[in-house]
Design a protein that fits this description.
Helix content is 45%, strand content 9%. The chain is globular and about 60 Å long. By secondary structure, it is α+β, with helices and mostly antiparallel strands.
Amino acid sequence: MTCDDQTCYRALVARDVRFDGLFFVGVTTTGIYCRPVCTARTPGRDRCRFFANAALAERNGFRPCLRCRPELAPGHAPIDAVANLARHAAARIEAGALNDGGIEQLAAEMHVSSRQLRRAVTQEFGVSPVELAQTNRLLLAKRLLVESNLPLIDVAHASGFASVRRFNALFRQHYGLVPSRVRSARRSATGGEHLKLTLTYRPPLAWPELLRFLAGRATAGIEAVVGDSYLRTVAVGDARGWLRVEPVPGKHALFVELATSLAPVLPRVLSRLRHVFDLSARPDVIDSHLAADKRLAEFVERAPGLRVPGAFCGFELGVRAILGQQVSVAAATTLAGRLAQKFGDPVETPFPQLTRVTPTPSRLAAAPLSEMTRLGILQSRAECIRELARAMAGGMIALEPGAAPEPVIERLLAIRGIGDWTASYMALRALRWPDAFPAGDLGLIRAVGAKSPAALREMAETWRPWRAYAAMHFWNSSVVPARSDHANERVLSAVAQSDRKPAPRLRRRRADGPVHVRPQRGTGAGTNMASR
């Protein structure tokens, strides 16, 4: 991230944790420097100096804040690795990582020792990993007691407790109440045989625009938008099921209905849903900043609270991004549906639109190229998908929120067929990086009126640190073409493309390389996000 003062101050006002460690702010009136997430009162702009790292702040005579402790900041701090490890572990624990396995298994998955993991979490949060997991379990259990009709034994197991006895003991110890009393004290119960919960958000939320974006890219058999609801199948570990999400009238919340078969993995499902709908965003801060640009003001007024849709499954999003290279939205959706039908396991749901779960990385890593090309997928795309599947199945790439974007993008670019555009798009949606920006996108170039990706990138500097949200406003506006437009190149149907040999100039370029805009090799220019 470029550490210009205006960008840094906007992130400071928002206290967005995604910018923690990317810069530090020195306050001239106190002589103290802080992290951008410090809970102290935000100083005025004229009293702030910004630094790319803590060493520069100290060289200029500032001393570290005792409240936010800059030495614990991730990103550029001296103990960067420890802080990053702790935060990533906390995200995994919140999603239920310790419910299925112990600390040893989590440490092995993160390629560290259990002792190192315990020390990092304790140093960062002041509690052990087990204590952090217990708090998350208790809070989820309390929600289930109030919002669902699950039997107490199912509440205990869905929250991650191995036994009802342990659940009752910890609940009484922490809250001074027995679980059954919490349930009997509620005024009403939600009936039905499915899990029903709510997810809150900061208003406003541009739900119609968000739903329209997801509907246009819904993979047949896996996802669907029906009326005002988003439906999809779920495969997490051994659990299989479905879910439905819709807004709660008159409240700043989304209603979530899930199959009871997903109770064992409920923390992970809820965590993923928050990412899909970007429910932790600060629309007030983001919108006020973007609306200052005359090119975005109308779009922000038209769709206040526009979110950046995340990915329920990082691998699913990665495959869709590859399939969408240089084809229309409809063609990419068709190919994704065929792939799901061929390689996704069947699942039973109450919705006729939902019949398959997302193909796993291991399944596609072992898939013969001939089986994918028969679906209408170009061989270069099939090879790229298989390489991504192998990298993710082998643990070399993790497309999940919380991962540092730079190293993940670097690994993605090492895969033949993935260029800057596709890698940036994956960072934007799968990694949840708010400043990700695919400057080579032809739709964005035309919507903004830029002459080249470089010119667009320069224009977008004023949108930092929320360039991803700016891109979403342009993509969702009527200005962006509804289909990829590669100069005089005709967008063919999926079947026709499988039979057509690529032009010689395209053979010499990467799979998502430029068509008629001619920047550096692998920039991904000329591909339209609408095809993703």
